Amino acid sequence: MKMITLLSIGITTLLLSCTANKKISTPAIPLYETKWSLKKIYTDAGTENVHTKAFIKFVELNKSAGGNGSCNSFGSSITINNNEISFKNIFSTKMYCEEVQKTEDSFFKQLEKATRFEIKGNILSLYQGEKILLEFASE
Q1: Which residues fall within 8 angstroms of residue 79, CB to CB, at 6 or more apart?
Q2: Domains in the chain: boundaries
Q3: Kindly report the CA angle at 118 between 129 and 128, in degrees rounded to 5?
Q4: Residue 23: DSSP 8-state
Q5: Which helix (H) or strand (E) holds 104?
Q6: Integer Cα distance of 107 and 101 in angstroms
Q7: CA distances in angstroms from 35 to 95, 123, 138, listed in the order given
Q8: Do 110 and 117 contact (CB within 8 A), yes or no?
Q9: b (16+ CB within 10 A) / e for 34-50
Q10: What is the C-alpha separation between 56 and 54, in angstroms, rounded?
Q11: Does the structural domain 35-138 have CATH classification 3.40.50.150?
Q12: Across the strands, what pairs with 128?
């Protein structure tokens, strides 16, 4: 009888410890129809933390993306296949804003290079192959 009780306790303990170690996964925030605020730009010169109103939003219906580069509104057609992405025909208004122009120029330049994306939690990252280019956070 002692053996059965000990065996029961051991199995129960094992099951509880396995259940406690499981991570509860929350669904990823959707790429489409989410406002993604630009947080970081990665270039060969280093990482720029962005503190402007730059953002991007993806629209599934017309396969487009658009938003604000920091000063100007912009838009683009997009092609998405699984986690591969490409931006074509990027256009923007043409105002010059001295205090944020460098950030906006870097943002658009890196956007043109993007070949894939990844969403982890509330962070959207755009890459060129394995090289990170841009990082956004959902609002």
Answers
A1: 63, 85, 86, 88
A2: 35-138
A3: 20
A4: P
A5: helix 101-113
A6: 10
A7: 22, 11, 6
A8: no
A9: bebbbbbbbeeeeebeb
A10: 7
A11: no
A12: 131
| The one-letter amino acid at 59 | V
Torsion 48-82-24-32 (CA) sign: positive
Per-residue pLDDT of the chain in tens (139 residues, 90 and over written 9): 554 443 444 444 444 444 444 444 455 799 999 999 999 999 999 999 999 999 999 999 999 999 999 999 999 999 999 999 999 999 999 999 999 999 999 999 999 999 999 999 999 999 999 999 999 999 8
Among 63, 61, 68, 62, residue whose Cα is nearest residue 35: 68
CB 116 within 8 A of CB 84: yes
Residue type, 65: A
